[in-house]
Design a protein that fits this description.
The chain is α/β, with parallel strands linked by helices. The chain has helices spanning 12-23, 35-44, 60-63, 66-73, 99-124, 140-143, 148-167, 193-202, 211-222; strands spanning 3-7, 27-32, 50-54, 79-84, 131-136, 172-179, 233-236. It has 9 helices and 7 strands, in the order E-H-E-H-E-H-H-E-H-E-H-H-E-H-H-E. The protein has a 7-stranded parallel beta sheet with strand order 3-2-1-4-5-6-7, sandwiched between helices.
Length: 243
């Protein structure tokens, strides 16, 4: 059974992706700091198809060791893919950030991806079959954000995706998904109303985007159907911000 690691798996896009992966036949290693969210996910997925790990990816000792510890626990482990989904959004001005909040944002949204991706690649570069990393960025990383820290980290994810596509080729493909206004996520309610209205005005497809819609694209990028794609940023935005 192909095994996938999904960070930030307890809610929103991560949860939808975990469910989609299990339905597609994968075994999911779900990581999050939301213990109750992980328990809720376990209640809807069969125990033989997923495992849950409490993990706070703002902590350097967590993101520096998480992947390696999985391999240490099982010396026969082979991971098919890594979905770097864990992320923070505060929706406020840079003037309102404390130093601690800044450091936490950098750690969760960018630094953890660097370490997790590197350690995944170290273990899987010699795999007999291709592997896949999918990073979750944001339209904010492409067109900007009133939350400067969020926008900067998500722009960094795009740069990391393109660099690692070169670094890890040809055995590991690295792509990113760039969602716009996604409903039913922890972020949606914190987006200022005027920004939500702006996103909605830009959309040319009018069916509201749900986490499941993003999960469909992630699943495609994990699969052999996307075997010719690497270093790409795939928007999931209802056609907003044509670029």
């Amino acid at each position: 059974m192909k095994k996938i690691v999904i960070t930030g798996a307890a809610n929103g896009i991560g949860r939808a992706t975990a469910i989609a992966c299990v339905e597609a036949g994968y075994y999911v290693i779900a990581a999050d700091k939301d213990k109750q969210g992980l328990r809720d996910l376990q209640s809807v997925l069969p125990s033989h198809r997923m495992e849950a790990h409490f993990a706070d990816f703002s902590r350097h000792d967590t993101y520096q060791s998480f992947i390696s510890e999985l391999y240490q626990r099982d010396d026969r482990l082979a991971l098919q893919g890594l979905v770097n989904n864990a992320g923070l959004y505060h929706g406020k001005s840079v003037y309102e950030y404390s130093d601690e909040e800044m450091e936490e944002m950098w750690a969760v949204n960018l630094k953890s991806l660097i370490y997790l991706s590197r350690d995944f690649a170290r273990h899987e570069l010699q795999a007999p079959h291709a592997r896949s990393i999918v990073n979750i960025t944001s339209v904010a990383g492409e067109v900007g954000s009133m939350d400067a820290l969020y926008g900067a980290t998500k722009a960094g994810v795009i740069g990391l995706t393109k660099a690692n596509a070169w670094n890890f080729a040809p055995r590991i493909r690295v792509n990113a998904v760039s969602p716009a206004l996604i409903r039913n996520t922890s972020i949606h309610g914190r987006i200022p109303e005027h920004r939500r209205e702006e996103y909605e005005r830009q959309e040319v497809l009018k069916e509201p985007i749900q986490p499941e819609g993003v999960a469909d694209v992630i699943l495609f990028l994990l699969s052999e159907q996307s075997r010719h794609l690497t270093g790409k940023v795939i928007p999931v935005d209802n056609g907003a911000y044509p670029r």
